[in-house]
Amino acid sequence: MYNLLKGKVGIISGALDKNSIAWKIAETAHAEGAKFVLTNAPVALRMGTIQELAEKCNTIVIPADATSIADWENLYEKATEHLGGKLDFALHSIGMSPNVRKKKDYGDLNHAWTLKAIDISALSFHKMLQVAEKMDVLNDEASIVALSYIAAQRTFPDYNDMAHAKAVLESIARSYGYRLGTSKKVRINTVSQSPTATTAGTGVGGFDAFMNYADKMSPLGNASAQECADFVISLFSDFTKKVTMQNLFHDGGFSSMGVSEDVMDMFRDEK
Ligand SMILES: NC(=O)c1ccc[n+]([C@@H]2O[C@H](COP(=O)([O-])OP(=O)(O)OC[C@H]3O[C@@H](n4cnc5c(N)ncnc54)[C@H](O)[C@@H]3O)[C@@H](O)[C@H]2O)c1
Question: Which family does it belong to (predicted)?
């Protein structure tokens, strides 16, 4: 370990169980010397094992539904009180689509659920930033990261309406990155991660086949949750102070590939 986050304080959302990407980010941030509070939706606190993570990281869990402005206000108030000051980093690791979860076909979407998916998975990022700005809880040069997926740019049928949510999420990172960059030198990025076997990930139809396909297409193979954590820690550290308003692909090279030999081999006519 390198003490990359020594002296830094922050908020980590979205750790549900030990497979969650946010779980690995919390463990790694703790190992790198950060202090932080954990947060998740009240229902996730009942279902998940986040308390176990809190004990390991010597911290507390503050429940917050990411779609509720009042919950963000309460979270920031309690977090800054617990941590003894303003925040240096924050992670948005929140996603859910009722249409994906209930396996609704893209041609038969329940649009009320789509609005819910966009509210939970994308507008929550705006709410997180808007409340942080209004309450002035971010230190100058703070670093904010949200997790995204390449379905924001390219079509992956089973990703359904989450594709739209991720496109909105990435757009918010740019717009708020401009705003808080000019006012406070805060940087805001999204990390577009490889398919990863988590509760949210495996909820997407055909996940196993798709994960294998992505692995075969990527020269470095799929990025694991732990590798994602390591990358996010570098974005929270002082080594990336001028990286902002970017969607950063953390995908083993997948996003730059047309086709790989491994995948071509599967389609060759045997002579
Ligand atoms: N797993 C993948 O393949 C993959 C790939 C790229 C990006 N991502 C993104 O990574 C992020 C984390 O997902 P994960 O794969 O670790 O799965 P996960 O299921 O472990 O995490 C999703 C989290 O969102 C939380 N959440 C849902 N509704 C909420 C609400 N209303 N308020 C607060 N929190 C709420 C859940 O409780 C859970 O902790 C998501 O944004 C996801 O889209 C995942």
Answer: Belongs to the short-chain dehydrogenases/reductases (SDR) family. FabI subfamily.
